[in-house]
Amino acid sequence: MEGKKKYNIAIVGASGYTGSELARILVQHQKVEIKMITSETHTGKPFSELHPQFLGILDLPLESAEEVSKNQLDVVFLALPHGVSMEYIKKWKDKKAMMIDLSGDYRLSGPDVYKNWYKQDHVFPEAFDRAIYGLPELHENRIRGAQLVANPGCYPTASILSLAPLFKDQLIKEGSVVIDAKSGTSGAGVKASNTTHFSNVNDNFKAYGLRIHRHTIEIEEQLGNLQKEKAKIQFTPHLLPVDRGILATSYAQVNEEMSQKKLDEIYGEFYKGKPFVRLRSSIPALKDVRGSNYCDIMPIWDERTQRVIVLSVIDNLVKGAAGQAVHNMNLMLGIPQETGLLQSPMQP
Amino acid sequence: MEGKKKYNIAIVGASGYTGSELARILVQHQKVEIKMITSETHTGKPFSELHPQFLGILDLPLESAEEVSKNQLDVVFLALPHGVSMEYIKKWKDKKAMMIDLSGDYRLSGPDVYKNWYKQDHVFPEAFDRAIYGLPELHENRIRGAQLVANPGCYPTASILSLAPLFKDQLIKEGSVVIDAKSGTSGAGVKASNTTHFSNVNDNFKAYGLRIHRHTIEIEEQLGNLQKEKAKIQFTPHLLPVDRGILATSYAQVNEEMSQKKLDEIYGEFYKGKPFVRLRSSIPALKDVRGSNYCDIMPIWDERTQRVIVLSVIDNLVKGAAGQAVHNMNLMLGIPQETGLLQSPMQP
Amino acid sequence: MEGKKKYNIAIVGASGYTGSELARILVQHQKVEIKMITSETHTGKPFSELHPQFLGILDLPLESAEEVSKNQLDVVFLALPHGVSMEYIKKWKDKKAMMIDLSGDYRLSGPDVYKNWYKQDHVFPEAFDRAIYGLPELHENRIRGAQLVANPGCYPTASILSLAPLFKDQLIKEGSVVIDAKSGTSGAGVKASNTTHFSNVNDNFKAYGLRIHRHTIEIEEQLGNLQKEKAKIQFTPHLLPVDRGILATSYAQVNEEMSQKKLDEIYGEFYKGKPFVRLRSSIPALKDVRGSNYCDIMPIWDERTQRVIVLSVIDNLVKGAAGQAVHNMNLMLGIPQETGLLQSPMQP
Amino acid sequence: MEGKKKYNIAIVGASGYTGSELARILVQHQKVEIKMITSETHTGKPFSELHPQFLGILDLPLESAEEVSKNQLDVVFLALPHGVSMEYIKKWKDKKAMMIDLSGDYRLSGPDVYKNWYKQDHVFPEAFDRAIYGLPELHENRIRGAQLVANPGCYPTASILSLAPLFKDQLIKEGSVVIDAKSGTSGAGVKASNTTHFSNVNDNFKAYGLRIHRHTIEIEEQLGNLQKEKAKIQFTPHLLPVDRGILATSYAQVNEEMSQKKLDEIYGEFYKGKPFVRLRSSIPALKDVRGSNYCDIMPIWDERTQRVIVLSVIDNLVKGAAGQAVHNMNLMLGIPQETGLLQSPMQP
Hints:
Four copies of one chain form a homotetramer. Chain A contains ten helices and 13 strands. By secondary structure, chain A is an alpha/beta fold. A seven-stranded mixed beta sheet of chain A has the order 8-9-7-10-13-12-11. Chain A is globular and about 60 Å long. At the A-C interface, strand 7, strand 8, strand 9, strand 10 and strand 13 of A face strand 7, strand 8, strand 9, strand 10 and strand 13 of C.
């Protein structure tokens, strides 16, 4: 029976937060079955040994990524570091499975830009042509037909969605955009480091990656495409003493008369029918979306300073990674886009 | 069609954490429909105005509890402070709906014990006889036939489950039990107070309620019933700088020879077939169960000191409140007990 | 003997964080003696009953502020809410003691601006003329001769210091300044409220006071004075899940050619000989200054975007309140300005 | 002039938290001068490059520990891991400087016990005879005459002080003691690891080191000495999501009649004249002592369960490490014991 058909899924890369978050979402997704999860360093162990929260829920033994070739798979999620992902995409280039890459390897426009910002050569530039940037609110139709999707970065998701309606309408005054973004530490990954050492983060706060963070160019390219003219934005990330969540506070000057009413109309129009963007009239907080696939956005017109301020919040592991990847999968498979993604945010 | 039948549900008391947590679980529960949510202070407002995380998910306008009498309801959840709950249970005593009381009003054995520990008279003692203590791992059969369930306290849930197998087998040396429990602040409720003021909790830690915490008697009565002899336990709660979760570290001396192997068998036997208790062989942490209905338990035999140590963790708002209430509802309605309760823990 | 002379000090307003922080600093200050501390609601109680950390250190019984008139005092600190402070300054207008007001009552240029931003009438505008804005890095000489000092707000301290050198040199491109500031919750005061309820802050983050925060005008007036032309800045505060600390991330475009070297020279020149400003070449974090009177500043030139970014961090209760007040006192009394203010930051 | 004499000090081991905490305390200590700080991995760098909070305060270049032999030093602090410390104590055995060892190498009674619990051979057992256990509340006189002091562990400091009065009076019922202790993460050191990875600690809580933690034997030996009979205690540490602080909740049954009054007298008597122990009549919290050398203790008699509960809190880096080491130094040098240790706790 059609309704009972389940798609076979693989998660490549089990140890990181995007891997475990994909598992958290997909074990409850009624249209898929997790066929395999891979880890090169923990091969043979049950997934739940790595992530004890899954005890009794997902005890599948971890396999090597080499096994992917031997399985009939409908969708492969690559939850791998950039630079590693492209190696597998090259290796599996003739495989039929749809691929969703959660790394940064195919988010930019081509190998030169990639090299400039990621400081390494791209080993499989051929795939850039068919890789679709997987931000459903911008590219839904192209994603539906895609075989390879580059899942957006977490900061770009929050940042692009916060300003897309204005760029789309070519309302942005050149050079005026400042995006001051703040992220929880899960964005820095599962691996212990000085950056994520508890006492360096707890009760603390700092900026990082000033001027040169890789997500800058990803934001600039996408927003530039929207306004059909190159964009230059000022992007500054900060590290919050929280687990999950990104708040982007975006500032822009506009090139025509503006009001709160007009601003609300522009955003309302742009996001009509988009199930995971919620326009807010009260100030959004990280926990309003935590654990969910929502992006809450509040655009504000400051008459006194003649500037637009936009607040946008996401859960970096869900809308900023695993949830958006599942959203992309749903579109690629042609099933209802909300499937498996309707859990309510967890607050407190 | 039988499979499509949905039960009509009311949540009485919308503003607290148990109210919003019931909503979080029930909006995804396939066998129920939330017909009404009540709040006396916010009547008329959408539920999502009080709890913005529910925007677009549950925008139901809040009603007065007075409206409960006018509706056809299958189950009523009372998410109210103790002392208030019993007033409504009295008022609705002829109503047909099943009632699940999340307050402490019917957890104890009778009005005298209630008065001793809650320092107030009980206004409707008649219902004690039919109120079933809703800890499914102990009283599953009685809950199945109940019309009124007293949902256990959060500390008692973690504490009783950690020692029940030993009390059941009458293995506990009298007077030897110490339960040192630590809870996140959501247990203290949604209302702002000095106790929950951020700078009094953050980067801080302290004990409270020493010697006289109400949950002491609840634990003693339940464990005493199990061993068919009164129990006296030392119970000390502490306030953790975390949102959710209880860890109970329980210590006991036993009255016959013990070993790790024997201990594991006792616990394995007792919890066989209980879907929400997971016996652990690695040390459980709060986040291993956060957002879920699991109680993870690790019993340890310390040969050197001849003492049993049991670690048990729950999410105080789920297994310690709303999740357990839904578990009780499932049993009362005769539907599969796991229904709507299988979300994976959220880590990080 | 001259060296032994101690000045008599009163702290008016014991219950708040600025009151207890003044006590923490002043009990170790070798040139002063705390003669009295006042609280209208806790009169008679030892100070250490309100703040148990002072047990055995400062057990002085709290007095009513009415007693201030009866004592020989050299310096009176007013650690009171705005609107209350001015009442006392009016009442004590003929008292000889130097006064340091930690509220916002005399920080602005006059009663009209005050009314506009604080939404209430000023009851004692006469004192505006003699009130000196107590930011020692800008107004050291005027503070030395002052009898009444308006201690700066916490955000303005971090914000003004971050941009003062550029405004002083009239380098700022009009309308280009965005100050995105983030503060710990102690800035919201000691009183329990929804805003500071643990579970609303912990693992969470949000903006507040957009467009209309009172500190906006305080920053604009001070920076405007420096460049001898009105300034308009975009100021957005955010609430961090930390106890103490403000990070201001300031963005500005400049009206002449700039380089990192030139920027460093401008800041180096401006802050030469200022003991509590530390120019940083590594990214400053809140904990680098926690518990201390330092303001760490890092100016960055972004060649790509042609924009200056300045990071500045302070402890809002020390450099942003009590420490700066003591600094002002030292200047007013003519004793070495660092006296009592050299404790090292506490990290972790 | 005698009063002006400053003692020359070295801190061996600059990178850890005990090293930086020693620096924080000693830069303000009027009787000492920090002559050298060592680090084998960062030799040549300024101390403030490792710990930016000391910029402008302590910029001393780091030296190799080999240089210690070449300097005239009065006191050497060894802020090193166990196993490393004893190597240096062996190497410097003929050096005249007083030595204070902050590792565990000389805290136990001898090399066999050491090997049993630290799982390694002791390389310089000869020094056990002259090493004094540096808990001033117990061994003040012996510390005054010592050349080598073994600075107590953090958990033992909080634990021993909480029960010493009862053991001293031989009041403890054998086998009845349970110490349930909770520590901030700085106790786990400065080095990044899974244990201290932010998202593994934040909003989380767990036990560790059950049954076998090394501090168990240290507590047992010291308490056993006090009652002149071997002691066996149940000790369980837990990891708190806070930077600093230990709370030990200790439970004991007693072998004679007890009352709150009697208990208070026993503790009052024992701690009379001890400047850093504060007996509390309100429940102590970690922040009541944070950043300070105080140990706050509250003994409670539970009439209902006939059990003593003792709450004790310390800052693990101060009273549990660097502060206590400086206290020991003061005693060894014969200067007033409070010197340099009177900073007030930092709250919030």
